[in-house]
Structure formats: C-alpha cells, structure tokens
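note to self: dont lose this again. the chain is below, predicted strucutre after it. 303 aa total, dont forget to put it in the shared folder this time
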Amino acid sequence: MKCRRLAAILMAAAMTVGTLAGCSQGQAAGQEDNPYGIDEFVMVLIPGEETEKSVQLRDNMAEEMSEAIGIPVTTYRATDYSAAVEAMRTGQAHLALLGPFSYVTARERAGAECLVVQATSGESGYQSYIVARSDSDIESLADLEGKTFAFVDPESTSGNVIPTDEIINEFPEKELTFDDVHAEGKFFASAMYAGSHPASIQAVVQGNVDAGAVTNTTYENQIEAGNVNEEDLKVIWESPVIPGSPLAIQKDLPQELKDKVKEFLLAYDDAEYFGDPNSRYIEANDEDYDYLEELKDKYGLTD
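---
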C-alpha cells in the first residue's frame, strides 16, 4: 500500500513539473513576441458623458493605438475616480484619463506618470462652475449658506476640491473645515455627491438641489446636446483656469512602451475624437499639478 501511494505521489509530481515546464515555455515564447510582458494594454476612463458616438470614437482610437504599439488595447469606464486610481494601483489599468486631483492621488498611490493633456489651439485647462436655477434667489457664493448642494465626486477637482476650497476662503470668519462644507447643517442644509458632472447639473435643473458644481465643458456640452436649456440656469461662480485632465501611464512599464504610447497620442489628430478641429494632445507638465497636491495636504484629503 505504501509503495502504491508513493508511486501515485511521484506520478502526480512528474505531471505537475511537466505542466509547469510547458507553461514556462509558453510564457517564454509569448515574451519573445511581446517584449512588454503584458498581453493587452488597458486604458481606463473617468466617469463622464457617454454616447454611442463617443464610445465608437474611443474604440477607434484604441484600435489605432493597438496597431501603433503592437499589442491589443482595450478601454473601459470606471465607476468613479477612486476606482480608476485603484485600477492603476493594482495593475488592472496601464493608462488612465484622470481628473487633475485624481491624478495627484494616482501619482502618489499608483505610480502614475502624466503623458499628455488635451489642448485647444495650444491651450489646455478648464474651469469649475457653480450653477443654480435661473428662477432662484442665489446670485453669489454668499447666498449658498443654508441651501442644498450637489458636488460631483470626492476625487473630482472641479466638482469638489476647487469649489470647496473657494467656499472655505469666502467665509473665513466661519472657520469652516473641508468636512464642514459636506456635512449636513454645517454650511449647507445638505450636500450630496451626484457621481458625475452631468448628474450634478441635472440635479440642479430638476430641482433636487438648489445649486451644484460642474465643469464648464460639461455645462456647455449639456446645453449643446439639448439636455439642458441655457435659460433655465445661471452661473454664479467660476474658477480660475485649472490644469487639464491628463492621460497618465504606469511609470514602471517598459520605457519603450511608454515612448510608443506617448508618440501615438501626440500624433493623434482625429478631430471628431477631440470634438474640435483645433484640439490635440500636447505634452503634460507634472509640475502643473503640484498646487493641487498642496490643497490635498492642506485639508488632509485621503480616499
């Protein structure tokens, strides 16, 4: 009985060794064809406006990128900013379109390295708006106290961090903390996270909140798409220009792969994809995002 048991163990061990050897040979063959060590290149997008056309344009770009870098490229949209950062941190995504503030988090937690940012006529950046219904009595930041408000997402630059900082600075005598601005009854009667910029502006339009934060590009796009009537809303505050949302890559990927991706993005010129014939990707400057890191440290912001 002992001999039979030993023979069975030896046979199983031999099969295991053979299987592992076969896997190693297969991996070695794959590595020879693909020097980057990954089977596919995954790009994750932040929550935002999604249409059938935008999905098709995104897929077209991924297909062209795949041809340029020599491995399949796939894309998907994250449920929120934190999920996009986590996907990079765990290696489930190699390239991510991030908001400026979520990029600061990603470079700290996920080893992200900004590559490019979209620019129009060579100028990148955008603004944060606070909007209210046209028929409301809200005309300025001073009128927001005691009202209901929609932020976008905890990691949203224009939909949370910048407008919160502005409200705190507007009322120094109140000595508000970052948490106070989001807590019920501390400044607003109540505040919520809408989850996306379109959802935030719709919360205002539908009267679910008195005012809300939204990026200027979403404000303009929602009006152009007919989802919002411009006469129904008013902009009561707008921020200075914020550095644009960068496409960031995992910095520990092979340099050859990073260079190919960057070269492709800088050369990409599909006017439909960018939504403007004068828009292109330009090289991003990592230092442009340092002041957002200062805000992160100032308020002790963490996920």
